[in-house]
Write a structure and sequence with these properties.
This protein has 2 helices and 5 strands. The protein is an alpha+beta fold and 113 residues long.
Length: 113
């Protein structure tokens, strides 16, 4: 499946969703393309916020229903928020210099036996 999105005042950016088969592992291309700082901020912020929301919901559910230890998830939330801030800094630099950004992201899934 291939999806196209148009960049503001720039050419078309292709975002391909493909997989590469490996032994006991799947690799999926999530993001690959050139983005303006505004577009990159939108895509990356939504991605990170989704992960943050997931951890917050899981923490609440695990803690309230089962009184589980959520320290690992809290650590991950801190890491995600730090990453979000670092990306914001990078985007400001790109915007200040009028540069576009090439972003590539894959997801690797393997079986854990």
């Amino acid at each position: 499946m291939e999806r196209l999105s148009k960049a503001k005042k720039s050419n078309t950016v292709k975002i391909k969703q493909t997989s590469v088969k490996m032994e006991n592992q799947e690799v999926f291309k999530l993001i690959e393309g050139v983005f303006t700082s505004e577009e990159a901020g939108d895509v990356l912020t939504k991605l990170i916020n989704s992960k943050i929301d997931h951890h917050n919901l899981e923490d609440f559910s695990s803690h309230i229903r089962f009184n589980n230890d959520i320290s690992n998830s809290k650590k991950r939330l801190l890491e995600l928020n730090e990453t979000k801030e670092e990306i914001k800094k990078l985007l400001k630099v790109a915007e200040g210099k009028g540069l576009n950004l090439f972003i590539k992201s894959t997801i690797e899934i393997s079986f854990n036996e």
